[in-house]
Design goal:
Helices cover about 10% and strands about 40% of the residues. The chain has 8 helices and 44 strands. It binds sulfanyl-(tricuprio-$l^{4}-sulfanyl)copper and dinuclear copper ion.
Length: about 650
């Protein structure tokens, strides 16, 4: 009987976990001035840029706050994007290269905006690839992905790309532990998980002037699942905190088997200590194959280099790098407050929210106040590190953000609400429903030492009845709350792109006057650029044909091309000669097994076309660039293989 009751209770909880509960008052009353608070008049600008992860679309999107207006639905990162040729043009293909070859998709969960002294400087936005582990860096003057580095010895890069307070490092913790090493060490039975599987945490250094990333070192870790992370800041600068689950080390039916223990851990990493060991030569180079891809703004091309080794540190032998803080129960988010003193754990199955104190943690370490060890690494005593617990906060806590006024805001997936509480007193101050099943929260500057505690956005997993329905798949949804007063106030619902997980927002003033408007032609170092109409030409090299083409309102040069044969590889190298903001030209040719090009002013981009039949094929500009845009077109003639039609090209009267 007892067992049956437990099973019933388990089933109810499982159902609630799977679907979330629908909160009451779904048509909650908005106060009269909500509309005016989000209204940005025509011609006016939003106060904040919000960079939003696209989840399973592998991209980012760019949204204005408070309006919720979308400026860039897709900022391509890990997935190909036919709209502008990302991953289709010859220049961008190397960006998506990995040790597995070309990978056209990924799953991007988290955004990290670069910081200096724990405040947003908004030079770069980092994103993680969850499936084929990678970290990307987006330049926020061009809103373009300029670097992607693959993370070896990782089975899923979820605990990423969180950063340290001066962007010294961006981290990558493996979600799935996997066997690593040579072929023989990786070809092992799955049920030898405990013996053969490993966790790794990678610290990727970021060049402080140019942003270039390198894998500085990897820490070997026990075969747990690493879920999320946050750096210490200010007083806790030098430390990093990672949430772990499946400390049961199960390899099957984790839903049950990884929920056995009362507490998992937050893993505290002293990365300054790790740096000392490296200086002392205690790191060990290990074989690891990974791709490192960079975009060059002068050549307008990417290069991909395969690297072969990483520096590995073993914290079982190198003492004082890793300490474990017990945390109930399958924690998801771990978040550090703006002062760096408090570390908030969010156990998905826990009835309380534990808040840990950094000062108490240091003291516990000093006093060797341990309750056990994992692989020789100390487990600190829960009570000794605990600042306190928030009682009865809600069901299914996931993530916490901060307003800079001493308050924390935690999302509750199961009870579908945001709960505001005081970090010092641990008193719950307010709660509001979300529609529905909220994941991450976002306060502009929330993860930094300087939050702008005016708005909060809840990124919800389920929208159900909030919008006009669109068949079986519904838009995910965001909700904007005013948090400037004592009580949170819902202002706006807006549908999102892809499935947002985390997002970060920062004041628009940080970057809006630094935007690149066009690329100067004189700096264009693309080896196949045509920098003026007199450079336009066609050259044959065996079966490869290179077309050096220019665009300017409103023509292509050349626009008539003959002497191409079936079996040729034709490369259209299109240079946009415009030197003005907001004048891209597009290029598309019939039958291309790829996408269009969208060429920015001053840029050169290349589309490969393999003509498979005889005929005359049109090409045209896809971007409505001028009154005579519809005249911006041309023809290319394809003759049979072996034909001796001479190579010829022209543009109206100008040849
Ligand atoms: Cu909570 Cu992948 Cu950060 Cu989604 S994760 S919600
Ligand atoms: Cu160029 Cu339309």
């Amino acid at each position: 009987m007892k067992t049956r009751l437990w099973l019933l209770a388990g089933a109810t909880l499982a159902m609630a976990l799977a679907t979330g509960c629908k909160p009451k008052g779904a048509q909650s009353a908005l106060s009269g001035d909500a509309a005016s608070k989000v209204y940005v008049a025509p011609g006016q600008h939003d106060e904040f840029y919000n960079i939003v992860s696209g989840g399973f679309n592998g991209q980012m999107s760019v949204v204005g706050l408070p309006s919720g207006r979308v400026f860039k639905a897709i900022l391509p990162v890990f997935s190909v994007h036919p709209e502008n040729g990302w991953g289709f043009s010859e220049e961008t293909k190397p960006m998506l290269n990995t040790s597995h070859g070309f990978v056209p998709w990924d799953d991007l969960h988290h955004i990290a905006i670069s910081t200096t002294n724990a405040e947003h400087d908004a030079r770069w936005a980092f994103g993680n690839a969850n499936n084929t582990p990678r970290i990307a860096r987006v330049d926020l003057t061009t809103f373009k992905t300029v670097e992607i580095i693959e993370i070896p010895n990782s089975g899923g890069n979820h605990s990423s790309p969180f950063i340290t307070e001066n962007t010294e490092y961006v981290v990558a913790g493996t979600r799935f532990s996997v066997p690593t090493g040579d072929d023989a060490s990786r070809d092992v039975p799955i049920d030898t998980y405990k013996e053969n599987f490993k966790g790794t945490i990678s610290f990727i250094s970021v060049d402080k002037d140019h942003g270039d990333m390198e894998i500085a070192f990897q820490l070997e870790a026990p075969p747990f699942n690493f879920d999320l992370a946050r750096a210490g800041k200010k007083k806790s600068h030098g430390w990093f905190f990672f949430s772990t689950y499946n400390t049961e080390m199960a390899h099957t039916l984790l839903e049950v088997n990884a929920s056995q223990k009362d507490k998992d851990f937050i893993m505290a990493v002293n990365w300054k200590k790790a740096e000392e060991y490296i200086k002392q030569g205690k790191g060990k180079k290990v074989k690891a194959k990974y791709a490192h891809n960079k975009w060059d703004e002068d050549t307008h091309m990417a290069t991909s280099v395969i690297k072969e080794e990483v520096l590995s540190l073993n914290p079982r032998e190198l003492k004082d790098i890793i300490y474990f803080i017990p945390c109930p129960k399958s924690p998801h988010g771990t978040d550090t407050d703006p002062t760096g003193e408090y570390i908030v754990g969010s156990g998905k199955l826990a009835a309380i929210i534990p808040v840990f104190s950094f000062t108490k943690m240091l003291k516990a370490i000093e006093n060797q106040d341990f309750e056990g060890s994992v692989d020789g690494m100390p487990v600190l005593r829960y009570e000794s590190v605990l600042h306190g617990e928030v009682e009865k906060p809600g069901l299914g806590p996931l993530h916490t953000e901060f307003d800079g006024r001493g308050n924390a805001y935690t999302s509750f997936f199961v009870s579908s609400e945001v709960v505001k509480w005081n970090i010092e007193t641990l008193q719950v101050l307010d709660r509001v429903p979300t529609f529905y099943s909220v994941g991450h929260l976002m306060i502009p500057g929330g993860p930094t030492g300087k939050p702008h505690g005016k708005y909060l956005v809840a990124y919800n997993k389920i929208s159900k009845d909030r919008y006009l329905p669109t068949g079986p798949e519904l838009a995910h949804t965001a909700q904007l709350y005013d948090i400037s007063g004592d009580k949170m106030q819902l202002l706006l619902d807006f549908p999102t792109v892809g499935e947002p997980h985390y997002a970060e927002a920062f004041p628009a003033s940080l970057i809006k006057d630094k935007q690149v408007k066009f690329f100067p032609l004189e700096k264009n170092k693309h080896p196949r650029a045509a920098k003026g109409i007199n450079d336009a030409r066609v050259e044959r090299d065996g079966n490869k044909v290179h077309i050096y083409m220019t665009t300017i309102r409103s023509n292509f040069r050349p626009d008539n091309i003959e002497g191409i044969r079936v079996g040729d590889e034709v490369y259209f190298h299109v240079t946009n000669l415009e030197q003005d903001w907001d004048v891209p030209h597009g290029f598309a040719v019939k039958g291309a097994n790829t996408a269009e090009l969208l060429v920015m002013p001053g840029e050169t981009a290349t589309l490969r076309w393999d003509p498979d039949r005889v005929g005359v094929f049109p090409f045209y500009c896809t971007d409505f660039c001028s009154a005579l845009h519809q005249e911006m077109q041309g023809y290319i003639r394809v003759s049979p293989a072996g034909s001796n039609v001479p190579l010829k090209y022209s543009t109206g009267l100008t040849e």
